[in-house]
Amino acid sequence: MKSIKTIAVLGALGVSLLGVRAQAQTGTGTTQGNRDRPGNTVRERVKLPERPKIQLPDDLKAMIEAARQAAVDFRAQQAELIKQLKDATAEERAALREQLKENREAFREAQKEREKEIRARLQELREQFKNQRDQVLEAAKEQGKKGRGR
Fold it and tell me: Is residue 19 part of a domain?
């Protein structure tokens, strides 16, 4: 008798918990339906200022474009060699694989040199503008000291 009461109590408790859970999932109190009511405001998305577009010097643009074009040419050349691999004999495949490997190494070295040149040019530009930036900041500080009236 005691076990029947315990089972009945546990069953009733389980059913009541399921009912509460089902009620919580109905979504009767969502805020989306209340947007049109007076006093409720919809948050506007904050508009961030546009980033200034950096104008690179022509020589730097040419260096970057040369590196990109070299990569495109390298990929095309490697794809052509890979196509030749499919129809080649075992000896030709070994030679083509060796050529692919040599091309890859040569390309890597050339790209490293191009990257060094680009980085060096960027560093020169940073130094050039750093000097100008310091002058502008100093002028702004002087202007600010004059305008404060202290």
Answer: no
Assigned token pair, 123: 């560093």
In a domain, 129, yes or no: yes
Specify burial of residue 11 (Cβ count, 10 A radius: 0-12, 13-18, 19+). exposed
User: Cα–chain-centroid distance for residue 78?
Assistant: 29
Q: Using the 8-state DSSP alphabet, how is residue 92 labeled?
A: H
For 81, the token pair is 């060699």
Amino acid at 109: E
90 contacts: CB under 8 Å, gap ≥ 6: none
The answer to whether residue 4 sits within a structural domain is no
Locate 134 and state its tokens.
């310091």
The model carries a pTM of 0.51
Count of domains observed in the chain: 1
What pLDDT does residue 114 have?
A: 94
